[in-house]
Write a structure and sequence with these properties.
single chain, alpha+beta, Cyclophilin, 8-stranded antiparallel sheet, two-stranded antiparallel ribbon, 7 helices, elongated
Length: 279
């Protein structure tokens, strides 16, 4: 059974999924910061978390510079999220694939987990994948608002089990990477017994490592949110959540329901007219 858990013989290998000058306001960072995102289908009011200061300050800066004016919600997936902030989406012709634009820098990850998680209405930073971005740094400009779906208690329990298995797999893979020369030699010599013995040894070591940490469990707050309003729990701990929607979830829901093309871009543009810091 343990040998079915991980396939050692598989060779391990190592886009964003996801300036116009203007008058700037002085921001009191000790207070809650609210911004209005004016779109072509209505307004969305968000608040930014002070516990994620790098993302907060960057979002405010881009808003004050007018970076978001004219950009699109370029990636929309019903029951998942709506994504925006690609500078290349401004005046983009119909059918153009979007999502790779940036502002020339990334923002270090700021995970405040499990306090802030991917409940419906969460404002989070898109980023490139782990294979090219192992530190999970955020895009300098692209963001998404979670829509997600409601989960049952049994589904969340199954997700907990999957996440714990993933922890074991990750620990095993890290150990296997350190033994790649030995693995290649055993495979070259067709030493199946040696491979299986090594596999069993690495599994035992991985299990011991994982056992030193508590098993993954959703907090009561997460369970309450995911079983009532919904969200996207599989993103937790992998993408920075730096704010949430205060007003305008009806607008977010309206956007998530628009017709999209095969690249998840709305067929009719949903435009961000302006993002402003509210008094």
């Amino acid at each position: 059974m343990r040998r079915n858990l991980i396939v050692l013989l598989t060779i391990l290998a190592c886009g964003l999924v996801a300036c116009k000058p203007g008058q700037k306001k002085e921001i009191d960072m000790d207070k809650e910061t609210k911004l209005k995102i004016e779109t072509s289908v209505g307004d969305i009011v968000v608040k930014l978390y002070n516990e994620t200061p790098k993302h907060r300050d960057n979002f405010i800066k881009l808003a004050q510079e007018g970076t978001y004016e004219g950009t699109l919600f370029h990636r929309v997936i019903k029951d998942f999220m709506i994504q925006a902030g690609d500078p290349e989406s401004k005046n983009a012709p119909k059918g153009k694939m979007l999502g790779s634009g940036d502002v020339g820098y990334t923002v270090p990850a700021e995970f405040v987990y499990p306090q802030y998680f991917h409940k419906k209405g969460a404002l989070s930073a898109a980023r490139q994948g782990d294979e090219v971005n192992p530190n999970k740094e955020s895009s300098g400009c692209q963001f998404y608002i979670v829509t997600g779906k409601v989960y049952s208690d049994s589904t969340l329990l199954g997700m907990e089990q999957q996440m714990n298995l993933m922890r074991l797999n990750n620990a095993f893979n890290a150990l296997a990477q350190k033994h790649m020369k030995e693995i290649y030699k055993l495979r070259k010599n067709n030493d199946q017994e040696g491979l299986m013995n090594l596999q069993d040894s690495l599994i035992t070591q991985a299990e011991a490592q994982v056992a030193q940490e508590p098993e993954f469990r959703f907090t009561p707050e997460q369970v309450e949110a995911y079983t009532t309003v919904g969200g996207t729990p599989h993103l937790d701990g992998s993408y920075t959540v730096f704010g949430e929607v205060l007003e305008g979830m009806d607008i977010v829901d309206k956007i998530q329901k628009v017709k999209t093309d095969r690249n998840d871009r709305p067929e009719e543009d949903v435009v961000i007219k302006k993002v402003t810091v509210m008094d």
